[in-house]
Design goal:
Layout (H helix, E strand, L loop, with lengths): L1 H11 L13 H21 L7 H23 L7 H7 L6 H21 L8 H5 L14 H8 L2 H9 L2 H7 L5 H11 L6 H13 L10 H8 L6 H6 L8
Helix pairs in contact: 2-4, 3-5, 11-12
């Protein structure tokens, strides 16, 4: 059994962690931690991506907090469906009361900490930004209401909104509707994640290996990170096959 092998290894290493293997309900507690960390990893992946912004992240975080509240209710009712590993270990048995209290307490603490780290996720302008053509004018700041009414009745802008990414849409109309665009761009422009920095760093690592550590990667990394697709026909046409021609 893997547990016994790990315990034996820790004993050989004279690690203080071996004492945890003697605790009652050790497997149950470990299974719960594996499951809850799995939910954290899923949330982490949802918060990554090129087109992420404060509004989409706010929605994901609010949804996760609601899930934690749901998990708490299910645990109190003896329902472990959201924790697969824990459910497999418990099987048809009842979750020990002491473990149930610990899990509920842990979920309560998580809900509280998320509230402390992200205290203001109710963005008043989010509806205006995400659904401008179905939003009520009452939800718009007073100084931008007249301009917003003009935007709602602009069929060209409405057609563009259906096909363009959110950021591109507001950037395109910023000259025609500066007040509304200003509200939107203040929420969309800030970097809500370090994803772009991490992507750039990973690209650099893949280019500048140990054997190429003296390489000047300015041009290479620009190509690796650029979204612009090269026009190979024009590039080929501008070159000569033979220098003598």
């Amino acid at each position: 059994m893997l547990r016994n092998e790990v315990k034996e290894f820790l004993c050989q290493m004279k690690s203080g962690l071996v004492e945890y293997f003697e605790f009652d309900n050790f497997e149950i507690t470990t299974a719960y931690l594996v499951d809850i960390v799995g939910h954290f990893n899923k949330l982490n992946l949802q918060l990554q991506g090129k087109n992420a912004n404060v509004i989409t992240h706010s929605d994901k975080l609010k949804a996760f907090i609601e899930k934690l509240k749901l998990y708490k209710t299910r645990i109190n009712n003896g329902n472990l469906i959201m924790f697969q590993n824990l459910n497999n270990i418990i099987g048809v048995n009842m979750l020990p009361e002491v473990i149930k209290k610990e899990i509920v307490c842990h979920l309560d603490n998580l809900i509280t900490e998320f509230g402390n780290y992200f205290p203001d996720m109710n963005l008043l302008s989010s509806e205006v930004i995400i659904s401008p053509f179905s939003c009520d004018v009452k939800n718009v700041k007073e100084e931008a209401q007249e301009e917003f009414i003009e935007l709602k009745n602009d069929t060209t802008a409405k057609d563009h909104f259906k096909v363009a990414p959110l950021n591109n849409f507001w950037l395109k109309i910023r000259n025609s509707y500066p007040l509304c665009s200003s509200i939107a761009l203040k929420a969309l422009i800030p970097f809500s994640t370090s994803y772009l920095c991490e992507a750039g760093f990973l690209a650099m690592l893949s280019l500048k290996t140990k054997k190429r550590n003296r390489l000047d990667i300015d041009a290479d990394i620009r190509c690796a990170l650029s979204k612009t697709k090269p026009n190979f026909q024009i590039l080929i046409a501008s070159k000569q096959c033979q220098n003598s021609h």
